[in-house]
Amino acid sequence: MRRFPAVLILTVLLLLSFSAVGWAAEAEQPYISVSGESTVEMVPNRVDINVAVVTEDADVKTAQAQNAKMAEKLITALKNAGIKQQNIMTSSYNIQPNYDYTRDGQPQLIGYRVVNEVKVTVEDISTAGSIIDTAVQNGANEVRNISFYTVGNTEQNIAALRQAVEDARQKAEVLAGALGKEIVGVKSASGNWFDQSPSPIIYDKMEAQSTPINPGKVNIRATAEIMYFIR
Fold first, then answer.
1. On the chain, which terminus has fewer CB atoms closer than 10 Å, C or N?
2. Which residues pair with 34 in a beta bridge?
3. Residue 85 is part of a domain; what is its CATH number?
4. Angle at 169 between CA 39 and CA 175, to 5 degrees
5. Is the separation of the CB atoms in 116 and 71 below 8 Å?
6. How many CA atoms lie within 13 A of 47 on its CB side?
């Protein structure tokens, strides 16, 4: 039978003992949990516009053919307006049957509805209104969504998260002071940031040459969750 030196066994036992004491001390050490947040405003520099080409016909192939022709016209017009090929993409395409429910309560198939939704990414947000007008004048018969956002905002994201951490620290110091304690370390920390884009405001055309749109500001919101050891 293999024998282990008594010194080695004793050393292992001592290490396990000290580890257990360390774990117990950490588990027993009091801590407080706080959250911090921060918001940084930015002017958006991109906008995604979702438009749809919708066609209906009693014959599904006819509806598809009409839709394809209108969609091709739409895409050509967008390219001519300065939109890059990679910034024009089909976001969804579906064919739906149309039923008439007024005949004795029994649904009767009367045709088909074809929907081709296209997402257009506009890099110059000042042209958003004219791009919408171009789309509507060249085949798009539905404007479904407009979303403003920012790209290249890493520095602002970091700044927002730093401010959220500072906010959490200030709250922790207030709590610790009120309890007659002091902060001695960090037990755990987590944080994140994300954009909050407001809904754009679309005004009536009236006498304007193109659809006026106010993008507003994009809010970069950061949050931090931190647990501080106290004594």
1. N
2. 226
3. 3.30.70.2970
4. 120
5. yes
6. 27
Cα–Cα dist 198/71, whole Å: 29
Residue in 161, 158, 152 with CA at minimum distance from that of residue 46: 152
- pTM across the whole model: 0.67
**CA–CA separation, 50 vs 148, rounded Å?**
12
- Which amino acid appears at position 25 of this protein? A
For residue range 162-195, list pLDDT tens digits in order: 999 999 999 999 999 999 999 999 999 999 998 7
Helix, strand or coil, per DSSP, at residue 141? coil
The span from the first CA to the last CA of the chain, in angstroms, equals 51
Chain center to CA of 105? 43
Pair (136, 59) in one structural domain: yes
**Of 149, 179, 196, which residue sits at a domain end?**
149
